[in-house]
Write a structure and sequence with these properties.
Elements lengths: L4 H83 L1
Length: 88
């Protein structure tokens, strides 16, 4: 059986650059994905650091309002308990 080396050589000449190109593209894609992930992480960290400084005043206001409502509730409950003891 005689091997036709011309066809094998032509196939190798076609496959080798294709394989190199595929590997290069794969490397570029992975590098791009890593860069995108780093950008997303940095944006997320920036958003978290901005969140605290941006809403710190609002959070303090809400906490003081909650404490005010707690005090009102305690006072009303105390008054109601006293009224119930007095009229039972």
């Amino acid at each position: 059986m005689e091997v036709n080396w011309t066809y094998i050589l032509v196939a190798m000449i076609g496959l080798i650059p294709t394989g190199i190109g595929w590997l290069n593209e794969r490397y570029k894609r992975k590098e791009s994905e890593v860069n995108n992930a780093q950008k997303i992480v940095s944006m997320y960290q920036k958003a978290l650091s901005d969140f605290e400084s941006k809403y710190e005043k609002d959070i303090a206001s809400i906490r003081s309002e909650v404490n005010s409502w707690k005090e009102k509730y305690i006072k009303l409950k105390r008054d109601f308990d006293a009224y119930r003891r007095k009229h039972n």
